[in-house]
Amino acid sequence: MSTPASHRADRAPVQQAALLAGLVFLVVGVLGFVPGVTTDYGSLEFASHESGAELFGLFQVSILHNLVHLIYGLAGLMLAGTAAGAYSFLLVGGAVYLLLWVYGLSVGHDSDANFVPLNSADDWLHFALGIAMIGLALALSRRGTHTGAR
Predict the structure, then answer these.
(1) Predicted model pTM
(2) C-beta of residue 104 within 8 angstroms of C-beta of residue 118
(3) Backbone angles phi, psi at 54, to 5 degrees
(4) CA–CA separation, 106 vs 108, rounded Å?
(5) DSSP letter, residue 115
(6) How far is CA 3 from CA 6, 7, 9, 81, 122, in A?
(7) What's the pLDDT band for 63 if we cut at 50, 70, 90?
C-alpha cells in the first residue's frame, strides 16, 4: 500500500524541486492579489508599466504578472509528475526567466514595451530564478532517475 510518505520517496529529486518551485510560484501568484502584501493595490493594472502595485513593496506586479506566476505554478505541479516533465519545467522555465531578465534590462522601465511590468528588483529576481532553475534541472536530473521515479 502506498502512503503519502512512500509516494514522496518515489519522486526523483528533480520532481521534488519542480513541485516546490510550482508551489512557490502559485503562492506568489496568489499573494500578488492580496492587498497589504501587495502595496498600492489600488493602482494594480492589467498589464502596464504604470501599474504601481508592488508585491512586498518591492516587486512591481500587474494582473498579467500575477496570472503568469499562477500558470507557471500550475505547470510546475503538473510537470512534476514525471522526472522528464520536471526536468523540462526547470530547464525551459529557467531559460524563460533568463530571457525575461534580458528583456527587463533591455526595455526602459517607463517604456510602453514594459507591459509585464518589470522593475529592477524583478529583473534581478528573474536572473536568480533562471540560474537556480537551470542549475536544479542539470544537477538533479543526474540523481535519482533510476529509482523508479515516475
Answers:
(1) 0.85
(2) yes
(3) -135, 125
(4) 7
(5) -
(6) 5, 6, 10, 16, 39
(7) very high
